[in-house]
Amino acid sequence: MIASVPALAIFLYSSYVNILIYNWKDIRNPEAGGAEVIASQFARRLARDGHEVTLFARAFRGCKGEERVDGLRVLRRGNALSVYLHAFLHYSRLPQKPDLVLDMVNTICWQTPWYVPAENRVAYVNQLAREVCFFQLPWPLSLLAYAAERLEYIPYRRTRFLCYSLSTRDDLVRIGIPKALIRVFPLGLDHDTYRLGTTKSATPLFVFVARLVNMKRADLCVRALRLVVERFPASRLVLIGGGPEERSLERLIKVLHLETHVEFLHRTANFLTDRSQQEQKVACMQDAWALLLPSVKEGWGMVVTEAAACGTPSIVTDVSGLRDSVRDDETGILVSATPSPDELAEAMCRIIADQDLRERLSANAHTWSATFDWETSYRRFREALQLDASRRETKLAPARTFADISPTADQAERNGRS
Known about the structure:
The protein is of the alpha/beta class.
C-alpha cells in the first residue's frame, strides 16, 4: 500500500491498514496505567477489525522484545529515554512505511513530524505535563522542563491531534496548537468489570487509587483523614497502588497515629493483568463512600469513572482533566486546585454527615458512568481519524466540530465547564 494514500480513503475503502502506534509503555508493563488501558482498547479493536497493528513501547525488566498481545504485534526497545531514538530507527529501517503512525504522547513527544509525512501521522495526547513538572522534578530542572514542553510541540503545529478531554484540548491550544486541528472523543469504560456492589461499608470508607507519586498527592489524603477522624473516629482510608512515595507515606501515617485507619492495598500490583487483584480493587471501590483524587493534573482520571460505575462519587481537585470527569455537586465534589488538608477534610465530612448528599451523588455518578463504553469510544475515535484525513484532502479547510459527529459532545462540553 502506498504510504501517501490519505487515511480517509484507507479506512473507508480498504480492509487492511498498516498502523504503527508509539506509546511509552504497553499494557504488560508493571508501571502501566490509564494511558496504556486506552491504547490497548483501541489497538486491539483496530486489530480485530482486520488492520495490521504494531505497538512500539519501551522495554521493562523481564519483558520479551517482541510478542503478540490481543491480536497486535508489540515491540519493546530501549528505556524511558532511549525508546524515542529506537522509535526513529525502527521507522527509518522499515522497507515499507506504515499507512498511519499514531503518535501517543506521554510527557515527551516522539517528534514524528521530523520523519513521518503529515498525511500519515496523527498525534494523540492524554495530558500535558505543565504544572506536574514542579511536583515531579527538582528545581531548576522543573522550570526547564516546564519551558521545554512548549518547545517540543513546535514541530507539531501542522499535525492533527486527538484527545479525550476539553481540558487537554485547551492546554494544547495554549501552547500553540491550532484548535481546528484538535478532535475530542469520549473515553470508554468496562462495565463488566466496574459495576454496582450489593452494599456500602457500614463505616466511612474512602479510597485512593493511583500510583504513589508526588503529583497524585496521596499525602494530602492522609493528612485530611487525620482531621476527619477527629470528628468521625471510625473513618478509614485505603491506598491502592504503589510507587516511590510509599515509604514517606508510611512514616506520615505513623507520625499522625493513623496506623489503624489507613491501609495499603496491592502496592506492587498490576491491576491491568492480574484479574484477582483487579477484582479486589473493584470490591474496594464498591464499598467506599467516596474516591479521593487530589491530583495536580490528569488527562481525565479513569479511576473516577470506574468508581462512578461502582456507585461511588469522587472528591477531586478542580484541575485539568478532573473538572471534565466530575460534575461538581452532581457526581462528586470539586475542591480547589491546591487544597489544604482542612478543605479536603471538610468535603470528606460532608459526604459522611449528609446521607442524602451521599446517596444523590452516588446515584448520579452511576447514571453518568453508563454513558461511557469502549465500543462507542472506539467508534468516535475512528470517526475522528477519518475527519482528520478528510481535512487533509481539502487542504485544512474549516473542519466540523466534534459535536457534528458525536451526539454526546454537547454533554461533554457541559461536563468540562460545569
